Structures are given as C-alpha cells and as structure tokens.
Amino acid sequence: MILEMDCGNSFIKWRALDAGVAVSGGVVDSDAGLIAAILAVPALCITHCRLVSVRSDDETSSLVASIVTTFGVDVQCAQPAKAAAGVSNGYEEYARLGLDRWLAVVGAFELSRSACLVLDFGTAVTADFVAADGQHLGGFICPGMPLMRDQLRTHTRRIRYDDLSAEQALLQRTPGRTTVEAVERGCLLMMRGFVLTQLELAREYWGQDFEVFLTGGDAGQVKDMLPDARLVQDLVFVGLAVLCPLP
Which sites bind K(+) (predicted)? Predict the structure, then answer.
C-alpha cells in the first residue's frame, strides 16, 4: 500500500492507496496524530510513501524520520522544479512557487492536457493559469474564507460567533440581518467575485477553450457558478503521483 501525505502549515491530509484505490485516509493536526491514525487501521500495510510539504525543512525531516522509523519504508518528497510532466513553472524563481500549488498545476494539466484555470479554496484562495502548451503563466493569491473571518473576528471587538453559526449563515445569500450573516455572506461574495475575475482573465487568454479545476475545502461554495468545472478534491495527490511515481 502507498501512503500519501499533503502536509500543510496546520494540518496533514493523508490517504492510503491499495492498487490505486483510496482505502483509508483523513486529516490530522500533528505528526503524532498521523502515526496514531494510520496505526488505528489494522488492515493497512504501508510499503511505499510519498509526500508534499510546505512546512520548514526541519519539520518535514522530523515527519519523514517518524514515518521511516514506524513503518520501515523510504519516503519520496516532492521537490520544486523548473519544468516537469510537460508543465513549465512560471515563477521567476521557480522554487518560490508553493509546492502544493505546483502539484495542483501539474495534476490539472495531467488530467486535461489543455489550457486550464486551477482554483484552490483553502485557508488562502489561489488561482493558477496553465496554457495549452503547459506553460504556467502565474497566478493570484488572496485570503480564503477562514482568513477573512478570522481577521474580522480578531480586529473587530464585537464580531464574535461560533463555527455552527457561520455554517448556518451561509445557507442563504440574502443581505445579512445579524452580524454573523453579514460577515459570512460578505466574505463569500468577495470569494465569488475573485472567481469571476479569474474567469474573465482566462477568457481573455483563451476564449472559451479552457478547463476549470476546483479543489480545496470551500470549493463547494462556488461550484454553482461553474457548472462545467471539474471538482477534484485530491488534485494535489494527482500531481504528487505524477512527480513521485512508485512501482
């Protein structure tokens, strides 16, 4: 079985593949939590491992050491590259492009082999443009829903509400009549406005001849705007498999 990991700054997303099919997985908030979660599934027999990490080198090395010690397997770590799998990195300093974005771009182009717009809705929202020849044209980064609401909660004393209230506020799109409704729906409109701007730019580049990929936890909040878009929650893992092939 192959253990795959997407290691962000706050959480680690993981899954185990058996013959290319995900048989288990989850999200944890620590290295110890990851090991415990995997060991809690007795049927898992890890033989290979690959990961992408946006953490510091020391943090990544510590996680790799834990995996090697616990499961006795080698670990492949995705690395930045100027070009790979038919995609040319568009950053002036290619190593500065976040590895999660790079893998999502590679994954999208692997699936489409055409011009594509990659939208990732996580803590931050990112947009990346890839031409039909595989040239990454660059992209944009803006705060996602979690960052926007946290900034308002942090810097505005009277804005206080829980996550359940936030979820309920997003069930409608009418002007808010409570603070939580006004904040959540306002943040959502900002995110949706960002999406519309990216679509306009993509059409300037390619007319209608491009594919849109959606990924990330809040992608569902914009799917209705993009009925033809491909929702691929594991897009980073698609790119990881391309850049770190295993037997």
Answer: 120
Please report, in range form, the residues annotated as the binding site for K(+).
120
Confidence of residue 158 (pLDDT cuts 50, 70, 90): low
* CATH architecture, domain 114-144+186-233: 2-Layer Sandwich (3.30)
Per CATH, which fold does 2-77 belong to?
A: Nucleotidyltransferase; domain 5 (3.30.420)
- What residues form DSSP beta bridges with 119? 127, 214
Q: Give the residue ranges of the annotated binding site.
A: 6-13, 91, 98-101, 120, 123, 179
Sign, CA torsion 187/189/192/193:
negative
Spot the catalytic one: 31, 100, 162, 234. Answer: 100
Q: What is the mean pLDDT of the chain?
A: 92
Output Rg (C-alpha) for the chain, integer angstroms.
19
Active site residue 100: yes
- pLDDT band with cut points at 50, 70 and 90 for residue 78: very high
